[in-house]
Amino acid sequence: METNTENLDSYLDNHFIHRSNWLRAAVLGANDGILSTASLAIGVAAASDLRDPIVLATVAGLTAGALSMAAGEYVSVSSQTDLEKADIERERIELEEMPELELRRLAEIYEQRGLKKETALMVAKEFTEKDALAAHVRDELGINEIGQAKPIQAALASGASFIAGGILPLAVALLVPLKNMELMLYGSAILFLIILGAVSARAGGSSIWKAIIRITFWGTLAMGVTALIGYLFGVNL
Predict the structure, then answer these.
(1) What is the spatial distance between Cα 237 and Cα 235, in angstroms, rounded to a whole number?
(2) CA torsion, points 96, 100, 104, 110, in degrees to nearest 10?
(3) pLDDT tens per residue across span 177-216
């Protein structure tokens, strides 16, 4: 029996939804790191014939972007956590003040999901006897351990992945010849984005080709607009 339970836990852990929190933050950070840093480098390269301004702008963008991503993710997810805690506390009070109404509400939820009225009420009673608050948090509020917000984890994943993504365009800006720098930055960034899209799609169980097409289109658009702005200003940095 213990072996079967362990196998079941292992099977559940392999579902893609269990990776949603860290995967979303990590992919978003790396994607933004590659795209925004490369776009910034391309924009400056389009307006300059010198390497120093390109590298300086890339380093500045990489640093500011990583801090901004981490801080933004922390604030965003913390706000979500605060909302979840407030809803859970409200639910706890409602269970204390009107338990019968909350029981009927839980039974109605199960009935709407396809159970017969008698069965729904019986299930609601059993869940209420075991842990009423947990049942309502899960089935009425839709909050569970899988989707529960983790601010520190999300912030660290976003910041670190942004740096990992942004270092790639920085390396290109440091190493490749100045001639056709924009094309080299664009080509390498698209290649990095395609690899990232394929890896994230594989980890998330989604279509690899769809991820590649989406990343290539939006990456080209973002870097193209940035390069156009650099050419239009034509500043001799």
Answers:
(1) 6
(2) 50
(3) 888 888 888 888 888 888 887 877 776 667 788 878 887 8
Structure tokens at 131: 């842990």
Q: Between vectors from CA 190 to CA 215 and to CA 76, what angle results, nearest 5°?
A: 50
Check: CB of residue 106 under 8 Å from CB of residue 127.
Answer: yes
Band of pLDDT at residue 5, cut at 50, 70 and 90: very low
By residue range, what is the domain housing residue 83? 19-233
The backbone torsions φ and ψ at residue 23, rounded to the nearest 5 degrees and listed phi first, read: -65, -40
* Position 12 in a domain: no
pLDDT of res. 56: 92
d(CA 211, CA 175): 29
On the question of pLDDT at 12 being above 50, the answer is no
Q: In this structure, is residue 7 part of a structural domain?
A: no
The pTM assigned to this predicted structure is 0.67
Number of domains in the chain: 1
**3 vs 208 pLDDT, higher one:** 208
Residue 183 lies in a domain: yes
Q: Which amino acid belongs to residue 129? A: E
Q: Is the pLDDT of residue 167 over 90?
A: yes
Q: Distance (Å, rounded) from C-alpha 80 to C-alpha 66?
A: 21
- 78 part of a folded domain: yes
Q: State the Rg of the chain over Cα.
A: 25
Helix (H) or strand (E) holding 160: helix 151-175
CA distance 8 to 15: 11
